[in-house]
Design brief:
Layout (H helix, E strand, L loop, with lengths): L7 E3 L4 E3 L22 H8 L3 H8 L7 H13 L6 H8 L4 E6 L5 H14 L5 E6 L4 H13 L4 E4 L7 H9 L3 E4 L9 E5 L1 H14 L5 E5 L4 H17 L8 E3 L7 H12 L8 E4 L2 H13 L9 E5 L13 E4 L2 H18 L7 E4 L2 E4 L14 E2 L1
Parallel strand pairs: 3-4, 3-5, 5-6, 6-7, 7-13, 8-9, 8-10, 10-11, 11-12, 14-15
Antiparallel strand pairs: 1-2, 12-14
Length: about 375
Amino acid sequence: MPPLPGRSIQFFSLCVRRPRRGQTSCSQPGVVNSSMAVRLKDIARDLGVSVITVSKALRDHSDISQETKARVLKRCREMNYRPNLAARALVTGHTSMLGFVVPDLLHSFFSEIVRSVSATLQGTGYTLVTTSSEADPKHEKQAVEQLIARGVDVLLVASAQWTVEMFRRVEEVGIPYILIDRSFTGLAAHFVGVNDEEVGALATRHLAEVGCKRIAHIGGSGLSPMVGRMEGYKRTLAKLGLAAGEELIYNVEHIEERGDASGYKATNKLLQLSPQPDGIFCYNDAIAYGAIAAVLEAGLRVPEDVAIVGCGNLLYNKFLKVPLSSIDQQTAAIGQKAGRLALQLIEAGEPIAPQRILLEPKLVVRQSTQRKSEKNPRAARA
């Protein structure tokens, strides 16, 4: 179909009419059609060099003189050159994209990990594509399929799945992946996260050291961090010879997205016990916020009547009415190590043996557990 009469195209410094069929367009050195992407051969023709020379100059190849590199880079800026990543992906088989699926971007634990991964990738030429599954296994599968379709070079997943079926699919496609924070029994996969059993042990031991005798736990079931922290809690109680009755354990649902409400409800139930717990280890900081609110509403004191410790060491813990003691999971280090591992997997170009990177948690003591009988001078304070 011939172009419409009178239709014009804007150039950087020249406006001409589109030639009618059979006519030739005027050409002028240094003038580039702004409606079309600038190609390497456009730059090469303009400078009177080969396409290979331009390509090598952009890759800072040692074969090309500094003078030629400077000319190429200057002309690229003038012509607003942008690499065609889609074309490059067809040639190299790499999109220079990493996909990251998290269960929740509102929870600062995951957003801080995402930020750390992104910072690690700065200057490497790789882009991080992040999406939230809203802690829904079905949404997570859809997100993973979309990232596979986009041809990401590596997948990072903080999974809400209960089975490994989805990851078998990823393995069939041949995309390397890294599990973040949550692992699966029987799945040999790269993993970066905190030592969750030690999280439970550290929190429980701290509560015992400040004088707590009946220590409750508000957590969940199914996902590996919940299981690990529960095991650490139980193991430590047994080691210390403290009560470990099932009535002191309260499992909640929607542990990530509605943690504060769940913690409030669970603590009200625990306070109905006789005798009441005098210490509560909460799966995460959001649950601890609800726990503190319930204790104070009941006319009790934190930490004198009930000491409370959370997990996550969120940025605003120290600004609460009762500043919260918490287990620091080293979120920045998790993101950094995950980013470096992802780059390693790309550079390897072939499958490598699964690496399991476990970071040790750290206790940060604040007012919610600072009793006069405290005997833990080694813990960090904030």
